[in-house]
Amino acid sequence: MSTRIELNKPAPEFILQDFHGREIRLADYHARRNVLLIFNRGLF
């Protein structure tokens, strides 16, 4: 079961890998006001 994310609420912490395999954490961008994530399902 997945948890639904609510509008106007802080995003939950997560870790993703970039194109080079490096881990990117949401917490790394904590000081920034906005973060844009793009999920491209057809990339690979």
What does this structure look like?
The mean pLDDT is 80. Helices cover 0% and strands 14% of the residues. The protein has 44 residues and is an all-beta fold.
Which features would summarize this protein structure in a list?
two-stranded antiparallel ribbon, mainly beta, 44 residues, 2 strands
Strand segment count: 2
Mean pLDDT: 80
Number of helices: 0
Please write the string of helix (H) and strand (E) elements.
EE
Helix content: under 10%
Q: Give the N-terminus to C-terminus distance in angstroms.
A: 25 Å
Approximate strand percentage: 5-15%
The unreliable regions are none
Globular, elongated, flat, extended or rod-shaped: what is the shape? globular
Rg from alpha-carbon coordinates? 12 Å
Q: Helices and strands: which structural class?
A: mainly beta
Strand ordering within the main sheet: 1-2
Largest sheet: 2 strands, antiparallel
Topology at a glance:
Layout: E1 15-17, E2 23-25
Antiparallel strand pairs: 1-2
In brief:
By secondary structure, the protein is an all-beta fold. It has no helices and 2 strands. A hairpin with a 5-residue loop joins strand 1 (15-17) and strand 2.
